[in-house]
Write a structure and sequence with these properties.
The complex is a heterodimer of chains A (403) and B (235). By secondary structure, chain A is an alpha+beta fold. Chain A has 13 helices and eleven strands. Chain B has one domain: P-loop containing nucleotide triphosphate hydrolases (Rossmann fold, 3-Layer(aba) Sandwich), CATH 3.40.50.300. The chains are: A alpha+beta (403), B alpha/beta (235). The interface between A and B is medium-sized, with 31 and 33 residues.
């Protein structure tokens, strides 16, 4: 055993010397693996860094939003009616930033900007009207372009005010609210106090809607349809809120409420990132295969050139396995060295790309440690055939070649 | 393998009976055709003959670098045909030394490291091998060149390094294939002096050569012609 260990230690030394004896050739041989590993690391690193960027965007937009609505029965009617004190019930939830309720009104008469006799309805527009609690604007991250949104006072008093979505404002040809322009939903006059901007990703139906206080909608406008509750949570609290809010809203049977939590967005992001990873991994894998073939090719040539040395070693007592171990060790070291350099270059590329885009470089912790192992294995794979081939040569045959 | 008990004093060190070696070329080459040969311990045997006669093939079979196609070959009474590949390798590592016409020195190793290569595959510790290598280089008079790399050595020096490597493992038999083939007469003389000294020290030497100055120094010379030992050619 001791004898074999001493022999393997010597073979390691011989393999290292063999590599260093031809530094130029070794460098060129390892170039394919170097490029393959560099491409692999850079690809995974950049896709992770970009993926992290996507995640952060999802986090700010979607991962803090929970949407709850009653489930519908087979006829499309809501299975349950949400209580009128939704915001009060939710207020105690830990991690909740703000909540708001939205309810589209049904059977709403057409809207016009001037109340006049217009039997043909030429000046009227069919624009959806949505009842909302004041918290809705914050809950869906809606901001006014001009004017303001209504508040709790407006809501308590059921003031006849409205906030317009930008598309609705354009259809009604209202572009400023300094003079509180009026609109008429049927015969109900409403004062326009604000117009929202276009950033309505969470609830895009507000773009083309007239938004009025929920109390006004209840009291003076048409019947209210199914309510939807929007909750904005602190980062990381969305899933907990998604579990707790239905109980707070309908403790008898929370399952009657449908909850849209951010898991879906995160899953989509994961799938997108995975698709990108697969594409780039294929390219990196291709580079790596080129690296393996390169090592195999040059090692084969090297083995043929070194037949004399092989013959000498066999003559002085090397077994076939000793020769194979030496050549495999050489090619494995070559793959390892090339991949360490390749990993470093790949990481440098990731950091450079991240710095150029002012992103935070992100990389799986296992990657810098695994890639050299992948390189060593590719070297081993590249050296396998030449090593096997050289062990097939009889010493007398090999000795006919010079060193 | 446990060697059978034999009377060593009566047994030649190397003994061949009707050994053949055929190569499967088109047409087949009969490099050896029924060779009978015995070499006693401590002898200096020269094998001569024209090119292509089968000298190197004979040496390769004797040195376990090649396998006979048929016939019996015994080393110290042990039948080589019964040796496993591992045993053949172990035999070469422990009991045989080799000198080649092409020197077969490794260019990126110093003279000392080349000599110390002997014993690597017997698992001898490196320090021990380096000491033995320095001693072997001293025997062939190359102590002052121990740190030189082969490309900087003369032909004669290279061959003496090869001799040092061959004797470094303290072999029982030294096989040499055209040891003076690439040397001028002066370098050749020094190499042959070294071989003489080793023979006088009791080493068995089998040498293949075209060079009459080499065969002149041998105790016995046989001529191989067309794959057989020429009758009556034992000198």
């Amino acid at each position: 055993m001791r004898h074999r260990l001493a022999l393997y230690a010597t073979l390691l030394r011989e393999a290292t010397e063999g590599l260093l004896a031809r530094p130029g050739r070794s460098a060129l041989t390892g170039l394919g693996t170097l490029l393959g590993i560099a491409a692999l690391v850079a690809t995974l690193g950049i896709s992770n860094t970009a993926g992290n960027r996507i995640v952060s965007r999802f986090d700010t937009a979607a991962a803090t939003t929970v949407i709850i609505a009653p489930r519908d029965d087979t006829t499309g009617a809501p299975l349950v009616t949400l209580p009128s004190d939704v915001e009060a019930r939710l207020a105690g939830l830990n991690g909740l930033v703000v909540s708001g309720v939205k309810a589209p009104l049904s059977n709403v008469p057409a809207t016009s900007t001037i109340q006049l006799l217009d039997p043909l309805g030429l000046t009227a527009r069919d624009i959806p009207v949505i009842g909302a609690t004041p918290g809705l604007f914050d809950a869906v991250d809606a901001h006014v372009d001009i004017g303001r949104t209504f508040d709790l006072i407006h809501d308590e008093r059921a003031d006849a005010v409205a906030v317009l979505g930008p598309a609705a404002a354009r259809r009604l040809e209202i572009s400023q609210v300094d003079s509180l322009p009026s609109i008429f939903v049927g015969s109900q006059q409403l004062l326009v106090i604000g117009i929202l901007d276009d950033g309505l990703e969470i609830s895009p139906d507000l773009l083309n809607a007239i938004i009025v206080p929920m109390s006004l909608a209840d009291a003076r406008l048409s019947s209210i349809g199914g309510k939807t509750v929007y909750l904005r949570t602190e980062l990381g609290a969305a899933n907990q809120i998604a579990a707790e809010a239905p109980i707070a809203l309908h403790p008898n049977d929370p399952s009657l409420l449908a909850v849209d939590a951010p898991a879906e967005a995160v899953r989509v992001r994961s799938e997108v990132a995975a698709d990108v990873d697969v594409l780039f991994l294929l390219l990196a894998g291709l580079s790596l295969v080129v690296g393996i073939v390169s090592i195999a090719n040059v090692t084969l040539i090297s083995v043929l050139e070194r037949q004399g040395e092989v013959g000498l070693r066999r003559a002085i007592g090397a077994r076939r396995s000793d020769i194979a171990v030496q050549f495999l060790t050489e090619s494995m070291f070559l793959g390892l060295l090339a991949s360490i350099v390749g990993t470093s270059i790949g990481m440098l590329v990731v950091v450079s790309v991240a710095a150029a885009n002012e992103w935070s470089p992100v990389m799986q912790t296992w990657l810098p440690f695994t890639s050299p192992a992948v390189g060593a294995l590719s070297g081993l794979a590249g050296g396998a055939y030449p090593a096997w081939k050289t062990t097939r040569i009889e010493p007398s045959q090999a000795l006919r070649a010079g060193v | 393998m446990v060697p059978p008990a034999v009377d060593r004093s009566a047994t030649p060190l190397l003994e061949m009976r009707q050994v053949t070696r055929h190569f499967p070329t088109q047409p087949p080459t009969e490099a050896l055709r029924g060779v009978d040969l015995a070499v006693d311990a401590g002898h200096f045997l020269a094998i001569v003959g024209p090119s292509g006669a089968g000298k190197t093939t004979l040496l390769n079979v004797l040195a376990l670098l090649d396998r006979p196609t048929s016939g019996s070959y015994r080393i110290e009474g042990d039948e080589v045909a019964e040796f496993s590949e591992h045993e053949r390798t172990a035999y070469r590592a422990g009991r045989f030394g080799f000198i080649f016409q092409a020197f077969h020195l490794i260019a990126h190793k110093t003279a000392l490291e080349n000599v110390a290569l002997a014993g690597v595959y017997t698992g001898r510790p490196r320090a021990e091998r380096m000491d033995a290598a320095a001693e072997a280089l001293a025997i062939v008079g190359l102590t002052d060149r121990s740190g030189a790399y082969p490309p900087t050595l003369s032909g004669g020096e290279k061959q003496r390094v090869a001799i040092a490597r061959a004797i470094c493992g303290e072999p029982k038999v030294l096989f040499a294939d055209e040891p003076s083939g690439n040397l001028d007469s002066r370098a050749s003389g020094r190499v042959l002096d070294a071989l003489d000294a080793l023979h006088e020290a009791g080493l068995t030497i089998v040498v293949v050569t075209h060079d009459p100055t080499v065969s002149e120094r041998a105790e016995t010379t046989i001529e191989v012609f067309d794959g057989v030992i020429r009758p009556g050619a034992r000198l």
